Amino acid sequence: MGTKTVLEELDRKILLVLERYNQLEEENSLLKETLASSKETELQLRKEILQLKEEDELKDLELEEIASRISEIMGLNFNSEKVPMAS
Asked: What CA–CA distance (Å, rounded) separates 35 from 17?
């Protein structure tokens, strides 16, 4: 093989390596963007979960309060029925 042929072959291989390097760089860039977007989505979902938990806790408290009021009302009604009537 002549020197020119060897140099041409080296040039071809270098170009292939550079092409592959550029492809990998592009893929890496896209993966970084995807990761950043995924992290942002994760943070938003975590915030939504916390908000839903807080809302759920508030609803539980409201239900406890309603149940307590119903118990009080039922207790008052039972007590008023037990009061002897004056004849």
From this structure: 26
Residues 6+ apart with CB under 8 A from 73: none
pTM of the model: 0.57
* CA separation for the pair 62, 68 (Å, rounded): 10
Please, what is the end-to-end C-alpha distance for the chain in angstroms?
A: 130
Residues 21, 27: Cα–Cα separation, whole Å: 10
Ordered DSSP codes for 63-82: HHHHHHHHHHHHHHHHHHHH
Other Cβ atoms less than 10 A from the Cβ of 71: the count is: 10
pLDDT tens digits, 30-80? 999 999 999 999 999 999 999 999 999 999 999 999 999 998 888 876 655
Tokens found for residue 16: 């292939």
Give the C-alpha separation, 35 to 7, whole Å: 41
